[in-house]
């Protein structure tokens, strides 16, 4: 891995949705879809992605902001065990940076984020047949119902960070 490529984990809703969002961002080199565990009360598997990104092309701040505003980061529900709203960090320095960034974003919000900052523990990749789900199946009902609205938010709020070639069909 090159020195400019670092990784961070994100969990929110379905990993198909999270994967599609981050696959559409300029500077993201790779998105691994699967199931992540953390420690203590968050040691159970939860759907998530590991995002490998080039820090010369996109910042951690931008990725966290995209994450917070493309899933229900302020709403708790009964499926939060399977769909934990979280940012998974890979070392203590990154963990502290993310905690501070999340506090900064919280200042501008009326409602509290439920997104947790957790230490990454373990990753189990998804089966190959369900990875890259959106870009293999953009016309499937799940994609049109759940993923397209998130990609439209991405286009509307973060257009300068979107790989326009990947989301061209949403503009039509």
Automatic annotation (TrEMBL):
It is an enzyme of class 1 (oxidoreductase). One of its GO terms (molecular function) is peptide-methionine (S)-S-oxide reductase activity. Its EC number is 1.8.4.11. The keyword Lipid biosynthesis does not apply. Keywords: Oxidoreductase. Pfam families: PMSR. Residues 8-143 form the Peptide methionine sulphoxide reductase MsrA domain. It catalyses: [thioredoxin]-disulfide + L-methionine + H2O = L-methionine (S)-S-oxide + [thioredoxin]-dithiol; L-methionyl-[protein] + [thioredoxin]-disulfide + H2O = L-methionyl-(S)-S-oxide-[protein] + [thioredoxin]-dithiol. This is peptide-methionine (S)-S-oxide reductase. The lineage of its organism: Bacteria, Pseudomonadati, Bacteroidota, Flavobacteriia, Flavobacteriales.
